[in-house]
Structures are given as structure tokens and as C-alpha cells.
Design a protein that fits this description.
about 20% helix, D-tyrosyl-trna(Tyr) Deacylase, Chain: A, about 160 residues, two-stranded antiparallel sheet
Length: about 160
């Protein structure tokens, strides 16, 4: 499971011109579910994201988490995070989980994040979405559930064998 975490002052997502999700100060999380991901991946990633100390304390140091600031999260499903772009110019998405499995894990992840005391607003799985955000910092991190605790950078984890 790959997450692109962006610290935001606000973020929103619309489908067909209609607002379907939004949050104020907190984070926008683009979430990609990979083949082989499990609920354990979602639990680990949600716990890590809820505790990341990337928000400023009273001294201006990044020392507070989204829960510490009473922030929220907008979580947007994004299978393109699993793109394999190494062969030719048209990426393939063979590393992404099948839609039914990915949607179930996306929803599970959102609930797991809520269990970490982070209010969650959602995009719509499979929809053509328009995401708007005011990036704060900017602070943008890429996290991978498979690399948590291993010391391995996410770019070295996903290898699709064709």
C-alpha cells in the first residue's frame, strides 16, 4: 500500500462538479492499494500516518501529528501510484490490486485511520475526481506499508515481473 501524504491547510475532491469530500487543516492522502496488500498493511500505514510529526509546534518545529493538531484527512484512492513506467512510454498498472479488493482495502484503511482518532473524508473509488488542495509547506511524503520498519525505501519494494 502506497500513500502520498501532503500536509494541507485545506483539501477537497469533486466528482461531476459536486463536492464529495473535504477537510481543513490536516492532510490529503492519495492511497494506492497493491496486489498482495492486506488489512495488516492498512493498519500499519494508518497508525504511522496518524503519528507522523510533520506539523509545527509552538516553536515552529515539525513536532506534532495530525491528531495532535486536531486535524483531519481527505483520503483519495489512486491506483496510478502503482504504475510501472520502466518499459516504454505507456505505464501499466499490473501492480495495483483488482478493483473489488482495492476498494475493500481502501475503505478498511479509512476506518483504520478513523480508529487512530483522525476524522476522515473520502474520495469515491473508481470515479473521475478533481482534487484541490492548499499544500502547507509544502510537506509531501511517500510511505509504503511494506517498507515500514525495514529501512528499505519504497522505490525499491515494488517490482512487477512481466
Amino acid at each position: 500500500m502506497i500513500a502520498v501524504f501532503q500536509r494541507v491547510t485545506s483539501a477537497s475532491v469533486a466528482v461531476d462538479g459536486e463536492l464529495v469530500g473535504q477537510c481543513g487543516a490536516g492532510c490529503l492522502i492519495l492511497l494506492g492499494v497493491a496486489r498482495g496488500d492486506t488489512e495488516l498493511d492498512a493498519d500499519r500505514l494508518a497508525a504511522k500516518l496518524a503519528k507522523l510529526r510533520v506539523f509545527a509546534d509552538n516553536n515552529g518545529k515539525m513536532n506534532r501529528s495530525v491528531t495532535d493538531i486536531g486535524g483531519c484527512a481527505l483520503v483519495v484512492p489512486n491506483f496510478t501510484l502503482l504504475a510501472d513506467y520502466t518499459h516504454g512510454n505507456r505505464p501499466d498498472y499490473l501492480g495495483a490490486a483488482p478493483p473489488d479488493e482495492a476498494n475493500a482495502l481502501y475503505e478498511y484503511f479509512c476506518r483504520a485511520l478513523e480508529e487512530q482518532s483522525v476524522p476522515v473524508s473520502r474520495g469515491i473509488f473508481g470515479a473521475d475526481m478533481r482534487v484541490s488542495l492548499v499544500n502547507d509547506g509544502p510537506v509531501t511524503l511517500v510511505l509504503d506499508s511494506r517498507s515500514l520498519g525495514t529501512g528499505i525505501h519504497p522505490a525499491n519494494i515494488y517490482q512487477v515481473n512481466n
